[in-house]
Structure prediction request, 347 residues.
Amino acid sequence: MKPIKFITATILTLGIVMTSLDCFACAACGCSLSSEAATGYSSTTGWSVSLQYDYINQNQLRSGTSSISSSQVAAINDAGGSQEVEHGTINRYITLGIGYTPSKDWNLRLLVPYIDRSHTTYGQASNPLTPDQISGAGVSSLGDIKFITSYQGLLSSHNLGIQLGVKLPTGAYGGPNASGTGTVGRNPVNFTSGPNTGDILDTSLQAGTGSTDLIVGAYYNNKVSQNFSAFANFQFQAAVKQKLNQPGEDYRPGNQEALSFGIRYEANPTFVPQLQVNINHRSQDLGTLADTPNSAGTAAYLSPGVSVSILKEVQIYGFAQLPIYSKLEGYQLFPHVTGSVGLAYAF
Prediction:
Protein backbone atom coordinates (compact mmCIF):
# COMPACT_ATOMS: atom_id res chain seq x y z
CA MET A 1 0.00 0.00 0.00
CA LYS A 2 1.34 3.45 -0.86
CA PRO A 3 2.96 5.45 1.95
CA ILE A 4 0.58 8.33 1.44
CA LYS A 5 -2.33 6.06 2.33
CA PHE A 6 -0.87 5.75 5.78
CA ILE A 7 -0.88 9.51 6.21
CA THR A 8 -4.53 10.15 5.64
CA ALA A 9 -5.47 6.96 7.44
CA THR A 10 -3.57 8.12 10.47
CA ILE A 11 -5.05 11.61 10.24
CA LEU A 12 -8.54 10.21 10.36
CA THR A 13 -7.84 7.50 12.82
CA LEU A 14 -6.63 10.14 15.19
CA GLY A 15 -9.72 12.22 14.56
CA ILE A 16 -8.10 15.38 13.25
CA VAL A 17 -10.81 16.14 10.73
CA MET A 18 -13.12 18.95 11.88
CA THR A 19 -10.70 19.69 14.63
CA SER A 20 -11.07 16.20 15.83
CA LEU A 21 -13.45 15.83 18.70
CA ASP A 22 -12.79 19.38 19.84
CA CYS A 23 -15.80 21.32 18.68
CA PHE A 24 -17.04 24.11 20.88
CA ALA A 25 -20.27 26.10 21.07
CA CYS A 26 -22.23 23.15 19.76
CA ALA A 27 -22.87 19.70 21.14
CA ALA A 28 -22.18 17.86 17.91
CA CYS A 29 -21.50 20.34 15.12
CA GLY A 30 -19.77 18.13 12.59
CA CYS A 31 -16.59 17.20 14.40
CA SER A 32 -16.93 13.43 14.06
CA LEU A 33 -15.89 13.07 10.41
CA SER A 34 -13.35 10.29 9.93
CA SER A 35 -11.18 10.74 6.85
CA GLU A 36 -9.04 7.68 7.44
CA ALA A 37 -11.11 5.86 4.91
CA ALA A 38 -10.08 8.46 2.35
CA THR A 39 -6.87 6.63 1.57
CA GLY A 40 -6.99 3.39 3.55
CA TYR A 41 -4.80 2.00 6.28
CA SER A 42 -1.12 1.15 6.09
CA SER A 43 1.72 0.05 8.34
CA THR A 44 4.45 1.67 6.21
CA THR A 45 7.24 3.10 8.38
CA GLY A 46 8.58 6.63 8.13
CA TRP A 47 7.55 10.26 8.60
CA SER A 48 4.46 12.10 7.41
CA VAL A 49 3.27 15.69 7.29
CA SER A 50 -0.28 16.86 6.66
CA LEU A 51 -2.20 20.11 6.45
CA GLN A 52 -5.97 20.21 6.71
CA TYR A 53 -8.60 22.96 6.46
CA ASP A 54 -12.06 22.55 8.02
CA TYR A 55 -15.03 24.89 7.60
CA ILE A 56 -18.06 24.79 9.90
CA ASN A 57 -20.74 27.44 9.50
CA GLN A 58 -23.19 27.16 12.39
CA ASN A 59 -25.98 29.27 10.93
CA GLN A 60 -29.20 27.69 12.19
CA LEU A 61 -30.70 27.44 15.66
CA ARG A 62 -31.93 24.02 16.75
CA SER A 63 -33.54 22.56 19.86
CA GLY A 64 -34.26 18.89 20.36
CA THR A 65 -34.72 17.37 16.90
CA SER A 66 -36.04 20.49 15.15
CA SER A 67 -34.92 23.89 13.93
CA ILE A 68 -36.21 26.95 15.74
CA SER A 69 -36.30 30.64 14.80
CA SER A 70 -34.47 33.38 16.66
CA SER A 71 -37.78 35.06 17.47
CA GLN A 72 -39.05 31.87 19.10
CA VAL A 73 -35.99 31.80 21.38
CA ALA A 74 -36.33 35.53 22.09
CA ALA A 75 -39.93 34.89 23.16
CA ILE A 76 -38.49 33.24 26.28
CA ASN A 77 -37.07 36.64 27.22
CA ASP A 78 -40.37 38.31 26.32
CA ALA A 79 -41.87 36.21 29.09
CA GLY A 80 -39.20 37.27 31.61
CA GLY A 81 -36.59 34.58 30.91
CA SER A 82 -32.85 34.95 30.45
CA GLN A 83 -32.06 32.89 27.34
CA GLU A 84 -29.22 33.86 25.00
CA VAL A 85 -30.32 34.22 21.38
CA GLU A 86 -27.27 33.27 19.33
CA HIS A 87 -26.96 34.56 15.77
CA GLY A 88 -24.14 32.58 14.14
CA THR A 89 -20.68 31.05 14.50
CA ILE A 90 -18.23 30.42 11.65
CA ASN A 91 -15.31 28.10 12.46
CA ARG A 92 -12.23 27.74 10.28
CA TYR A 93 -9.58 25.27 11.46
CA ILE A 94 -6.13 24.73 9.98
CA THR A 95 -4.40 21.70 11.46
CA LEU A 96 -0.78 20.70 11.00
CA GLY A 97 -0.10 17.01 11.55
CA ILE A 98 3.37 15.52 12.06
CA GLY A 99 3.55 11.73 12.24
CA TYR A 100 6.21 9.09 12.75
CA THR A 101 5.85 5.32 12.35
CA PRO A 102 8.89 3.55 13.82
CA SER A 103 7.50 0.07 13.07
CA LYS A 104 4.46 -1.63 11.58
CA ASP A 105 2.94 -1.88 15.04
CA TRP A 106 3.23 1.72 16.25
CA ASN A 107 2.59 5.23 15.03
CA LEU A 108 2.88 8.60 16.75
CA ARG A 109 1.25 11.87 15.76
CA LEU A 110 1.34 15.48 16.88
CA LEU A 111 -1.65 17.65 15.88
CA VAL A 112 -1.33 21.45 16.02
CA PRO A 113 -4.55 23.38 15.25
CA TYR A 114 -4.98 27.06 14.43
CA ILE A 115 -8.46 28.43 15.24
CA ASP A 116 -10.17 31.19 13.26
CA ARG A 117 -13.66 31.73 14.67
CA SER A 118 -16.21 34.54 14.37
CA HIS A 119 -19.27 34.60 16.63
CA THR A 120 -22.34 36.84 16.74
CA THR A 121 -25.21 36.92 19.20
CA TYR A 122 -28.29 38.94 20.13
CA GLY A 123 -27.49 38.26 23.78
CA GLN A 124 -30.57 38.03 25.99
CA ALA A 125 -32.59 40.27 23.70
CA SER A 126 -36.38 40.33 23.44
CA ASN A 127 -38.55 40.66 20.35
CA PRO A 128 -38.45 42.36 17.98
CA LEU A 129 -34.87 41.39 17.16
CA THR A 130 -32.94 44.08 15.27
CA PRO A 131 -29.42 44.23 13.76
CA ASP A 132 -28.23 46.84 16.31
CA GLN A 133 -28.70 44.21 19.06
CA ILE A 134 -26.04 41.93 17.55
CA SER A 135 -22.64 41.70 19.27
CA GLY A 136 -19.61 40.15 17.60
CA ALA A 137 -16.27 38.64 18.56
CA GLY A 138 -13.40 36.98 16.72
CA VAL A 139 -10.87 34.33 17.75
CA SER A 140 -7.64 33.82 15.81
CA SER A 141 -4.94 31.86 17.62
CA LEU A 142 -3.32 28.52 18.37
CA GLY A 143 -5.72 25.88 19.68
CA ASP A 144 -5.18 22.90 21.97
CA ILE A 145 -2.40 20.58 20.77
CA LYS A 146 -2.86 16.80 20.75
CA PHE A 147 -0.39 13.94 20.90
CA ILE A 148 -1.72 10.45 20.09
CA THR A 149 -0.09 7.03 20.02
CA SER A 150 -1.66 4.19 18.02
CA TYR A 151 -0.84 0.49 18.31
CA GLN A 152 -1.92 -1.77 15.43
CA GLY A 153 0.02 -4.95 16.21
CA LEU A 154 -2.91 -6.89 17.64
CA LEU A 155 -3.37 -8.80 14.37
CA SER A 156 -0.79 -9.89 11.82
CA SER A 157 -2.79 -8.01 9.17
CA HIS A 158 -2.38 -4.75 11.15
CA ASN A 159 -5.98 -3.77 10.47
CA LEU A 160 -7.09 -3.52 14.11
CA GLY A 161 -5.69 -0.74 16.27
CA ILE A 162 -6.06 0.97 19.63
CA GLN A 163 -5.19 4.55 20.58
CA LEU A 164 -4.14 6.52 23.62
CA GLY A 165 -3.55 10.24 23.57
CA VAL A 166 -3.67 13.55 25.39
CA LYS A 167 -4.96 17.03 24.59
CA LEU A 168 -2.98 19.84 26.23
CA PRO A 169 -4.31 23.31 27.27
CA THR A 170 -2.14 25.27 24.83
CA GLY A 171 -4.90 27.48 23.43
CA ALA A 172 -6.11 30.72 25.01
CA TYR A 173 -8.96 30.11 27.46
CA GLY A 174 -10.87 31.75 30.27
CA GLY A 175 -13.78 33.91 31.34
CA PRO A 176 -14.85 36.41 34.00
CA ASN A 177 -13.65 35.95 37.56
CA ALA A 178 -16.03 35.14 40.40
CA SER A 179 -16.52 38.78 41.39
CA GLY A 180 -17.06 39.93 37.80
CA THR A 181 -14.31 42.54 38.12
CA GLY A 182 -11.68 40.86 35.94
CA THR A 183 -10.74 37.74 34.01
CA VAL A 184 -9.39 34.27 34.72
CA GLY A 185 -7.47 32.02 32.39
CA ARG A 186 -5.00 32.97 29.67
CA ASN A 187 -5.78 35.76 27.19
CA PRO A 188 -9.52 35.17 26.72
CA VAL A 189 -11.08 37.10 23.83
CA ASN A 190 -13.64 39.90 24.33
CA PHE A 191 -16.56 41.03 22.18
CA THR A 192 -15.42 43.84 19.89
CA SER A 193 -18.71 45.11 18.47
CA GLY A 194 -22.32 45.64 19.51
CA PRO A 195 -23.88 46.10 22.95
CA ASN A 196 -21.57 43.49 24.52
CA THR A 197 -18.35 45.26 23.48
CA GLY A 198 -15.70 44.69 26.14
CA ASP A 199 -17.46 41.68 27.68
CA ILE A 200 -15.65 38.35 27.61
CA LEU A 201 -16.64 35.86 24.91
CA ASP A 202 -18.21 32.64 26.20
CA THR A 203 -15.65 30.24 27.67
CA SER A 204 -16.78 27.46 25.33
CA LEU A 205 -15.99 29.67 22.31
CA GLN A 206 -12.39 30.51 23.24
CA ALA A 207 -9.54 28.90 21.26
CA GLY A 208 -8.87 26.36 24.04
CA THR A 209 -10.71 24.78 26.94
CA GLY A 210 -8.06 25.16 29.65
CA SER A 211 -8.28 21.41 30.25
CA THR A 212 -5.98 18.43 29.86
CA ASP A 213 -7.97 15.66 28.18
CA LEU A 214 -7.44 11.91 27.88
CA ILE A 215 -8.20 10.36 24.48
CA VAL A 216 -8.79 6.64 23.89
CA GLY A 217 -9.99 4.91 20.75
CA ALA A 218 -10.00 1.90 18.47
CA TYR A 219 -10.33 1.27 14.72
CA TYR A 220 -10.80 -1.64 12.34
CA ASN A 221 -10.76 -1.94 8.54
CA ASN A 222 -11.07 -4.84 6.12
CA LYS A 223 -11.75 -5.78 2.51
CA VAL A 224 -15.37 -6.78 1.85
CA SER A 225 -14.95 -7.54 -1.87
CA GLN A 226 -12.42 -7.06 -4.65
CA ASN A 227 -13.21 -3.35 -5.04
CA PHE A 228 -14.70 -2.40 -1.68
CA SER A 229 -13.29 -2.03 1.82
CA ALA A 230 -15.08 -1.05 5.03
CA PHE A 231 -13.94 0.58 8.25
CA ALA A 232 -15.18 1.54 11.70
CA ASN A 233 -13.60 3.59 14.45
CA PHE A 234 -14.54 4.96 17.85
CA GLN A 235 -12.94 7.70 19.95
CA PHE A 236 -13.65 8.97 23.45
CA GLN A 237 -12.30 12.18 24.96
CA ALA A 238 -12.68 13.43 28.54
CA ALA A 239 -11.13 16.22 30.59
CA VAL A 240 -9.05 14.87 33.49
CA LYS A 241 -7.63 18.19 34.77
CA GLN A 242 -8.94 21.76 34.49
CA LYS A 243 -7.04 25.02 34.99
CA LEU A 244 -10.38 26.78 35.55
CA ASN A 245 -11.14 25.03 38.83
CA GLN A 246 -11.90 27.67 41.45
CA PRO A 247 -15.38 28.29 42.92
CA GLY A 248 -17.33 30.77 40.84
CA GLU A 249 -14.85 30.64 37.97
CA ASP A 250 -14.71 26.95 37.02
CA TYR A 251 -15.24 25.19 33.69
CA ARG A 252 -15.06 21.58 32.53
CA PRO A 253 -15.87 20.67 28.88
CA GLY A 254 -18.27 17.78 28.40
CA ASN A 255 -17.08 14.28 27.49
CA GLN A 256 -17.22 13.48 23.77
CA GLU A 257 -17.73 10.22 21.88
CA ALA A 258 -17.46 9.80 18.12
CA LEU A 259 -18.34 6.68 16.11
CA SER A 260 -17.70 6.48 12.36
CA PHE A 261 -18.19 3.67 9.87
CA GLY A 262 -18.20 3.56 6.10
CA ILE A 263 -17.19 1.99 2.83
CA ARG A 264 -14.58 2.83 0.16
CA TYR A 265 -14.65 2.02 -3.57
CA GLU A 266 -11.09 1.08 -4.62
CA ALA A 267 -11.37 -0.04 -8.26
CA ASN A 268 -9.08 2.87 -9.20
CA PRO A 269 -6.33 3.46 -6.59
CA THR A 270 -5.73 6.99 -7.88
CA PHE A 271 -9.31 8.16 -7.34
CA VAL A 272 -11.09 6.62 -4.35
CA PRO A 273 -14.63 7.76 -3.43
CA GLN A 274 -16.24 6.77 -0.16
CA LEU A 275 -19.34 7.16 1.93
CA GLN A 276 -19.43 7.16 5.71
CA VAL A 277 -21.78 7.69 8.64
CA ASN A 278 -20.59 9.78 11.60
CA ILE A 279 -22.29 9.85 14.99
CA ASN A 280 -21.14 12.31 17.62
CA HIS A 281 -22.29 12.80 21.22
CA ARG A 282 -21.26 15.40 23.76
CA SER A 283 -22.31 15.51 27.41
CA GLN A 284 -22.97 18.76 29.26
CA ASP A 285 -20.25 21.27 29.99
CA LEU A 286 -19.99 21.86 33.73
CA GLY A 287 -19.02 24.77 35.97
CA THR A 288 -19.99 28.37 36.64
CA LEU A 289 -18.50 29.49 33.30
CA ALA A 290 -20.32 26.79 31.32
CA ASP A 291 -23.55 27.23 29.41
CA THR A 292 -24.67 23.87 30.81
CA PRO A 293 -28.32 23.80 29.59
CA ASN A 294 -27.24 24.46 25.97
CA SER A 295 -24.15 22.28 25.64
CA ALA A 296 -25.12 18.63 25.20
CA GLY A 297 -26.52 16.57 22.37
CA THR A 298 -26.18 13.93 19.69
CA ALA A 299 -25.88 14.31 15.92
CA ALA A 300 -25.49 11.97 12.95
CA TYR A 301 -24.08 12.83 9.54
CA LEU A 302 -23.90 11.27 6.09
CA SER A 303 -20.48 12.15 4.68
CA PRO A 304 -19.37 11.58 1.07
CA GLY A 305 -15.70 12.08 0.29
CA VAL A 306 -12.90 11.34 -2.15
CA SER A 307 -9.11 11.08 -2.16
CA VAL A 308 -6.89 11.71 -5.18
CA SER A 309 -3.22 10.77 -5.60
CA ILE A 310 -1.58 13.63 -7.46
CA LEU A 311 2.04 12.47 -7.00
CA LYS A 312 3.64 9.27 -5.78
CA GLU A 313 3.81 10.47 -2.18
CA VAL A 314 1.29 13.32 -2.20
CA GLN A 315 -2.45 13.04 -1.88
CA ILE A 316 -5.34 15.46 -1.57
CA TYR A 317 -8.75 14.64 -0.11
CA GLY A 318 -12.06 16.30 0.60
CA PHE A 319 -15.32 15.62 2.44
CA ALA A 320 -18.75 17.13 2.88
CA GLN A 321 -20.72 16.34 6.02
CA LEU A 322 -24.52 16.44 5.76
CA PRO A 323 -26.60 16.31 8.96
CA ILE A 324 -29.27 13.61 8.94
CA TYR A 325 -30.25 13.67 12.64
CA SER A 326 -29.73 15.84 15.70
CA LYS A 327 -31.07 15.92 19.21
CA LEU A 328 -29.68 18.93 21.05
CA GLU A 329 -30.35 20.12 24.58
CA GLY A 330 -31.45 23.72 24.98
CA TYR A 331 -30.94 26.07 22.03
CA GLN A 332 -27.80 25.62 19.96
CA LEU A 333 -26.29 26.79 16.68
CA PHE A 334 -25.89 24.02 14.13
CA PRO A 335 -24.52 23.79 10.55
CA HIS A 336 -26.44 22.92 7.39
CA VAL A 337 -23.29 21.37 5.92
CA THR A 338 -19.58 21.29 6.78
CA GLY A 339 -16.50 20.69 4.66
CA SER A 340 -12.86 19.54 4.93
CA VAL A 341 -9.96 19.44 2.49
CA GLY A 342 -6.46 18.21 3.12
CA LEU A 343 -2.99 17.62 1.71
CA ALA A 344 -0.72 14.81 2.94
CA TYR A 345 2.90 13.91 2.23
CA ALA A 346 4.90 10.86 3.33
CA PHE A 347 8.66 10.42 3.28
